[in-house]
Amino acid sequence: MTATAARPAETFAAKQATTRHFLMCPPAYFTVEYVINPWMNPDEPVDAALAMAQWEELKNTYVRLGHTVNTIEPQPGLPDMVFAANSGTVIEGRVLGSKFRAPERAAEAEHFRRWFVTHGHRDLVMPTRINEAEGDFAWTGEVLLAGTGFRTDPAAHAEAQEALGVPVVSLNLIDERYYHLDTALFVLDKGPNAQIAYYPGAFSEGSRRVLARMFPDAVIADEADASCLGLNGVSDGHHVVLPFEATGLAAQLEERGYEVIGLDMSELRKSGGGPKCCTMELHS
Question: Is-catalytic flag, 277?
C-alpha cells in the first residue's frame, strides 16, 4: 500500500454507481499466434475454454451490476477481436473508429465500424492516423486522456479532439510492458472531480507531472499491481472490476469507499489483456 492511501476512508465522498453501456466480443477464436506486445508468447498453450469462461464471468458481472452489455460477432482469423476496447471511442453520441498499428489486427476496425452503423451510430468518423481507441483513450467526463509511445500516433490525439469535440491531454508511455494507456491508468469516477488510478512508472517524467497536477488525489499503483495488469480495470463509480491479483490496489480502493470485484483474467492476459481490454464503454 502506498502513502496515498493514508487518509481514513471516511474522509472520502460516498461512491455512487452509474449505469454503463458496454460493447464486448466473445473470445470464440482467441489464441496467441503472433507477438505484438511483451505479454504474448505463441509457445505458451492457451486454454480456449478457460478464456471463454473468464470472459463470460466478466460479462455476467456487468449484467449483475445492472449495466447494459451488447456483443459483436467474433470473426475467424482475428484472435484479438475479444479486446473490444481497441476498436472505438464513443463520447456523447460521437464515434471515432480505430486504425491498428499491427497488420494482424487491422481488419477488426471494419467489423466494429459496421456494428456501429447497423446499431444507429451515424455520427461516426474513421481515423486517418494510427488510433487504438480506448486502448489509448480514457474519458474522464471532462477531458480525454490520450496515450502514445507504442501504439497510437501522437497526431491521432488532435484527430480525436476534432472528431469527438472534447479536450485532449497527451500522455507519453515509456515502458513497453504498458503499451496502451489502459494498461497503466483507468478512470474510477467521471465528472468535474474525476478520480483515476495509475502506475507512474509507465509514464515519462513530464506526463507524471501532468497527472500529478490534474489528479492530486489519484490512487497510485505500485509495480506489483501494474505487473498483473491491475490497472486494466473498469469502474462504474462505485464497483471496480480488477484482476484478482491486484491486491494492493484493491486495498487502496476499498479504503476510499469503492467496492472491488476481483476476477481471474489469467488466460486473456496471455495476450496482454484484462477487464478493460475486453470492454468498450459507449459513454453517454
Answer: yes
